[in-house]
Amino acid sequence: MRIDGTPFRSIWVDELDRWSVRIIDQTKLPWAVDLVRLTTMEEMAHAIKAMLVRGAPLIGASAAYGVALALRADASDASLANALAVLGGTRPTAINLRWALARMEKVLAPLPAAARVAAAYEEAAKICDEDVATNRAIGENGLPLIAERAKNGRRVNVLTHCNAGWIATVDWGTALAPIYMAHDSGIDVHVWVEETRPRNQGASLTAWELGKHGVPHTVIADNAGGHYMQHGEVDLVIVGTDRVTRSGDVCNKIGTYLKGLAARDNGVPFWVALPSSTIDWTISDGLSDIPIEERAATEVTTMTGRALDGSIATVRIVPTSSPAANPAFDVTPARLVTGLITERGLCDANEAALTAMFKDVA
């Protein structure tokens, strides 16, 4: 995708030295586009844990390059095992992290140390290229859901939660990919962007990238989504996900479950876009089996933004005596999901449909 006309991926190998890894520091958006250079596995682990990079597909791609950086410093078995352990412990909920590390281990473990570095960079690049192709396919498969509602040139209103755009993946995005394709094809599509407290990924990230691409959008408070559904101003909901069970339960940013309930109550289609790497075939019950990351209370008690004088400031918004809890994700049961948008097509959110569509990997 593009930032002010310049094409970008969200992660890439530095063009000059051809071994360090560049990312866009998403904690600085939307106020600055900071292209960070990472040179060690430890720096990559910090970038994942501190959410300089975030979004399930991008977390997986970043971890793959983290392994490559580790092996460049030391290609031994011990170094590989340490990198897999450290990177694997950075974020517990997104299954793409575990998927990417398992793929890297499968390729690299049988190789002699001398062959591992080149193979690690090659495999990480493959993961990134495949992610781009996969998300493009998700966009193509989701596009008809928007196009069919654009009768006689009417505006189509899509509501999304959190950020599942190109900066949450290597490129294109998951939930936003159909929206970008609809916009680029001339469809009048408008996006309701929920702010997505507490980290405001909707207001800070989704709004930023939609704006850079020229897609009409409006930022709304998290609690306003149901109101707009009640008044017929939401044609469909499309969200991303960090993990999907084999039964179709969906784990996404905290607050997604409430949107699923509101959509069901108002007869609004609720679609979830995902690559197949986000499916966890080992579990069936999302509520009991998916680990929910509990993040720092300061994400709830403070907020960062641009002050009226133009400076960037972090302020406390909660009484100093009040504690805060911060579960980062919730689970939307399959019964509330209209369907899944995958790289292979549209799919019902149940085990039979998922297994039939992905029988070669299930």
From TrEMBL:
It catalyses: 5-deoxy-alpha-D-ribose 1-phosphate = 5-deoxy-D-ribulose 1-phosphate; 5-(methylsulfanyl)-alpha-D-ribose 1-phosphate = 5-(methylsulfanyl)-D-ribulose 1-phosphate. The record marks 162 as: Transition state stabilizer. Transmembrane segments: none annotated. Its EC number is 5.3.1.23. Substrate binds at residues 54-56, 91, 201, 252-253. The keyword Amino-acid biosynthesis applies. Pathway: Amino-acid biosynthesis; L-methionine biosynthesis via salvage pathway; L-methionine from S-methyl-5-thio-alpha-D-ribose 1-phosphate: step 1/6. GO terms for molecular function: S-methyl-5-thioribose-1-phosphate isomerase activity. InterPro entries: IF-2B-related, IF-M1Pi, IF_2B-like_C, Initiation_fac_2B_a/b/d, M1Pi_N, NagB/RpiA_transferase-like. Coiled coil: none annotated. Keywords: Amino-acid biosynthesis, Isomerase, Methionine biosynthesis. One of its GO terms (biological process) is L-methionine salvage from methylthioadenosine. It comes from the Bacteria. The active site is at 242 (proton donor). It holds the Pfam family IF-2B. Catalyzes the interconversion of methylthioribose-1-phosphate (MTR-1-P) into methylthioribulose-1-phosphate (MTRu-1-P). Also catalyzes the interconversion of 5-deoxyribose 1-phosphate and 5-deoxyribulose 1-phosphate. Part of a bifunctional DHAP-shunt salvage pathway for SAM by-products. PANTHER family: METHYLTHIORIBOSE-1-PHOSPHATE ISOMERASE. Belongs to the EIF-2B alpha/beta/delta subunits family. MtnA subfamily. This is Methylthioribose-1-phosphate isomerase. The gene is mtnA.
